[in-house]
Amino acid sequence: MISRALILSNQRPYANSLKSLLEEQVAPGCRVDVETDALRAMQISPRAYQLIVLDAELSGTDGLQLLLMKKRQSAATKFIMVSDFPNELTRFQAFQNGASVFLVRPAGDAAWPGFMKEISDVINPAGATRAAVDAAPATVPVADIIQTECLSGHSTGIQVYRGEEIGDIFIYQGELYHAQCAGMSGPRAFFHIVAWPMEEVSIKTLKLAHIPPQTIEPNWQQMLEESRRGPEPYVDEESAISITPVYDEDVPEQALEMAHHEAPPLDLADPATGYTDEGAENTDETGPNRQFGEVQNELQLPSLISHWKINLMGELMEGFKVDDPDQAGIVSFFLYRKLADVAVALESDYFTRLSLQGTSVTHELVADNFGVRHGTFRTDDPNCAQDREAFIAWCYGNSL
Fold it and tell me: Residues 6 or more apart from 336 whose CB is under 8 A from it?
């Protein structure tokens, strides 16, 4: 049972109704405070409350960022996020930022009982929880269910309940796609969920209605094998690509970071040199050693540091001045996949052009349904903007 709760919402009628229901039905004796001003809410210490119910849409601030900030200030506080416009991306971000539950705001009197039941399950996990109502006690390990669903090629959402903890694992067309639980997502959340003892969990499987953002890259066999090696396997952070964009001139000197895969220094003494073994000749007109200094479709390749092309399987097809072909392909494929996942979640078209500008190096990516071309340029070059546009035109002139 809780003694203090806080409601953060711009909608006063809704907040007052929720306050009354919490004090009278769900948590009698609990003191419930209401704050409708987002700026004042940012100054409130969350440590004073066992439960905070906040809106995803708050005028004057981002509810998701406020959730992240408050969760970091008080990890023990339970947070419930409420939205008028639910979607998988917002739900994903809410869980990643520390929400215990993500709920849709009740639109009428008929929706309130179910809404309050969800909140009651968070407050009183030892009582009649949602897991006891909707899910069945596990009779086989979560890992076995995942294996069965993946082998069957299904698109499934697996909800796993362990006391007050709730975890979601998403399988899309037979492959692990995403996992989330309070404060975690991706491989870390997956390993955390599958490590829960079978006798302590209840499980519910649902047909996947929406495709969430993809946060798990390895295949399901590899993930399950890793999970069998012990609880909470180590996830190699250095295998990820870190990007720190520079937004304006006031930002201190910090270049665009792409792990350890930044392009090599500018050296265009021989603009026709491809990445070949020393002494090898560039004779393949279509393979990785193809020369890019030639005029094709009456378009000349502009001055740049390096560029390369991958197909949509991440395989490097061509390159110019590429110091490490494998790592170059990994960087481009990573960026393409992540942006494509966001596009799917937002129900919009895939990107066709992406610019990443740092203080030293600027990256240009151009994509279509068959591949991605990636070029790098010196940011401080006076002709950088002109060369980037010429590169884009060159890419389209050569059908990417």
Answer: 310, 312, 365, 367, 372
Do residues 269 and 370 both lie within one domain?
A: yes
All residue ranges of the chain with pLDDT < 50 are 127-133, 232-297
Cα 203-207-211 angle, rounded to 5 deg: 110
User: Looking at the structure, do residues 55 and 173 belong to the same domain, yes or no?
Assistant: no
pLDDT at res. 186? 83
Distance (Å, whole) CA 224 – CA 231: 12
Does the reported pTM lie above 0.85?
no
pLDDT value for 341? 61
Task: Specify which residues 178 forms β-bridges with.
Answer: 170
Number of continuous H segments (helices) and E segments (strands) in the chain: 11, 18
User: What end-to-end distance do the CA atoms of the chain give, in Å?
Assistant: 61
| CA–CA separation, 15 and 112 (whole Å) | 13
Q: Length of the chain in residues, anyone? A: 400
C-alpha 102, offset from chain centre: 17
253 and 331, same domain (yes or no) = yes
75 contacts 97 by C-beta, under 8 angstroms: no
How many other CB atoms are found less than 10 A from the CB of residue 30?
17
* Alpha helices (H) along the chain: 12-21, 38-42, 63-73, 88-96, 112-123, 130-134, 142-151, 186-194, 220-227, 325-345, 384-397
Residues whose CB is less than 8 angstroms from the CB of residue 80 and which lie 6 or more positions away in sequence, other chains included: 51, 52, 53, 54, 99, 100, 101, 102, 103, 118, 119, 122
Question: Which pLDDT does position 376 carry in this prediction?
Answer: 92
**CATH code, domain with 92:** 3.40.50.2300
Q: Which domain holds residue 145?
A: 133-235
Cβ-proximal residues to 148 (8 Å cutoff; 6+ apart), any chain: none
Closest CA to 375 of 359, 393, 362, 386: 362
Q: Does 263 share its domain with 328?
A: yes
